[in-house]
Amino acid sequence: MGFALRSQLCWRAFVSRSDLSKQYYRSLIPAVGQLFSESSLMAVDLEMTGLDPDRDQILSIGLIPIENGMLQLNRAEQRLIQINGSVGDSATIHGIVDHQLQDGVSIDSAVEWFLARTRGKLLVAHHSPLDLGFLQTAIKRVTGVSVKLLAIDTLALERKRLLRQQDVLKEGTLRLGACRSRYDLPVYAAHSALVDALACGELLLAQVAALGEQHQVSVAELCHLS
Predict the structure, then answer these.
(1) pLDDT band at 214 (very low <50, low <70, confident <90, very high)
(2) CA–CA separation, 110 vs 156, rounded Å?
(3) CA-to-CA distance for 31 and 140, rounded, in angstroms?
(4) Taking the model in full, what pTM does it have?
(5) What are the pLDDT digits (tens) for 71-103?
(6) Above pLDDT 70, what percent of the chain?
(7) Cα 183 from Cα 168, distance rounded (Å)
(8) What is the structure's pLDDT at 226?
(9) What is the C-alpha separation between 58 and 78, in angstroms, rounded?
């Protein structure tokens, strides 16, 4: 698995015409060969105005590093992002209202910050295709470059575990809160990018610990290219 991922990253770096994407892929090549206990990861969560990256906008990004199997809470960061127009009815989901975004950063600054903070780090997200889809769309709009992000998806890990146990996956079974409850993790207020990034990071640590012999688990076994 690790060899296959490294080969994909090497190929993407080779064929890329952009220095930005070349550097991004090359920075991840050493990372996919690491054991989880030695890895450098970044838990990420987004709040958006909707679910369509082509029409909706990113409101906030939360990042928390995970180094050597430990959450680095003293290095947790969040950015509120200015948008075009109003948050509209989406405020009922995430609680972010228009005046809170007045002091936010531009999407250009947010993308620059995200790329700088996550370079060389594997991402960790719950239902990663959604958040990574928005991030990839934003990166393309800001830089003109298409970048495929690499992530560990805690939802996909939990689905695989439950299906291996032949459990029936009922509606809501794979939501972040439901997944955390199966590992006796505390209940957090949802729909804050930073809090959800923390919740996702804690869930990953619990999932890896439940595998047993966590010091022998490689990150390549856990991640995929979005």
Answers:
(1) low
(2) 27
(3) 24
(4) 0.93
(5) 999 999 999 999 999 999 888 888 888 999 999
(6) 95
(7) 18
(8) 47
(9) 12
Residue 216 above 60 pLDDT?
yes
pLDDT value at residue 107: 97
The DSSP bridge partners found for residue 150 are 225
Whether the CB-CB separation of 6 and 29 falls below 8 Å is answered with yes
Secondary structure of the chain in HEC code, one letter for each residue: CHHHHHHHHHHHHHHCCCHHHHHHHHHHCCHHHCEHHHCEEEEEEEEECCCCCCCCCEEEEEEEEEECCEECHHHCEEEEECCCCCCHHHHHHHCCCHHHHCCCECHHHHHHHHHHHHCCCEEEECCHHHHHHHHHHHHHHHHCCCCCCEEEEHHHHHHHHHHHCCCCCCCCCCCHHHHHHCCCCCCCCCCCHHHHHHHHHHHHHHHHHHHCCHHHCEHHHCEEEC
Tell me which amino acid residue 156 is. Answer: A
pLDDT tens per residue across span 127-150: 999 999 999 999 999 999 999 999
At CA 199, angle to CA 195 and CA 203, rounded to 5? Answer: 170
Euclidean distance between CA atoms 36 and 201, whole angstroms: 13
Which tokens sit at 77? 């960061």
How far is it, in rounded angstroms, from Cα 103 to Cα 178? Answer: 34
For residue 92, what are its two tokens?
């009922």
Here the tokens at position 164 are 């291996």
| Pairwise CA distance, residues 18 & 110, whole Å | 20
